[in-house]
Amino acid sequence: MAAVEQRFSIEVDPSEEIMDIQMGPAHPATHGTIKFNLKLDGEVILACDTEVGYLHRGFEKMIEQGTWTQAIPYTDRLNYVSPLINNVGFILGVERLCGIEVPPRCQVIRVIMSEISRICDHLTCLGMGAAEAGAQTVGFLTNESREFLWDIVEAVTGARLTISYTRIGGVTRDLPFDIRERVAAAFTNLRGVLDDCDKLLTRNRIFYDRMSGVGIISAEEAISYGVTGPLLRAAGVAYDVRKAQPYSGYERFDFEIPLGATGDNYDRFLVRVNEIEQSMRIVEQGLRELPDGPIRIDDPRYVLPEKHRVYTSIEGLMHHFKLIMEGAKVPAGEVYQAVEGGNGELGFYIVSDGSGRPYRCRVRPPCFYSMGALGAMLKGHMVADIITTFGMVNMIGGECDR
Question: pTM, whole model, 2 decimals?
Fold first, then answer.
């Protein structure tokens, strides 16, 4: 904070038109509670220092207060738009400590639900980004299409946002019997919406001029900031955790990594659109090849007994009670597990002391690193470019601030 104050308290020549302006932390154009300390020459941005951390969520310390299963709902709240990916990332780390390999059907279900979650995340980013550039219709279209997908999420998990769907060794429930019909109907609508958005935006003169050549970051600079996800791929770097360190059987799926060339906002827009296409491709493959079998392991050390056993036998009741009150005993050790989140590499560094509660959990949120690079993206651009660039970064406050 002291360095920031020193940087922005430099005396300037009153004859110059250099201004220090604070934008936020509750500006209507900021998606979350965040502040930009701007140094401007007229409307040109000379420097932008980004302040995050206003949410004070204490996510990592709260996780240490409950059992391993009680930590899962906290991961939902990291990124409310794609909570299924967060669930999967955390549980994969715990399962690695336990030496658990879940059944094939469970792996495919996790992949299907993660990709539906990714599509919802990208639709939110594209719709809101377009609306802030003046294309409100696109925002309405993408939100409507996202609702159809959230209907599927609700049918599978029982909730639309805070789903808490994964468990150690499996998932809470199987897919509904009509999942293929539901997904086919939602994807038909989604493909129509993407076509409409393409006609409305991709060659729209105003949208193109607002996005093209704005917010550029080179591949080398993005890597040096630790940027991952669509921002890094828009700069031409083919890094995707699903390909680089496959998990949950992603190596068996046929999909491509869309790339950009210049690393500007327009490339980020196109990369996210193409990634939606690739995610639909993965979901359709998963549903086509969905194996039969159980959706969770059969290990009483980690999995709750069936309800009828809890209600009809003392052994089942005691088993349920001990797992709920004491938590599953995860072997001592430490692990880093990364998954490809909606905005990039989402990592969980987990430490277990062998008890029923996490000893330590540290999260690598992709938004945090993207926000660190925002000043470099905005330097030399206009104040109005903050809105479009920030929109394509797609900062999620709960993930960035933890």
Answer: 0.91
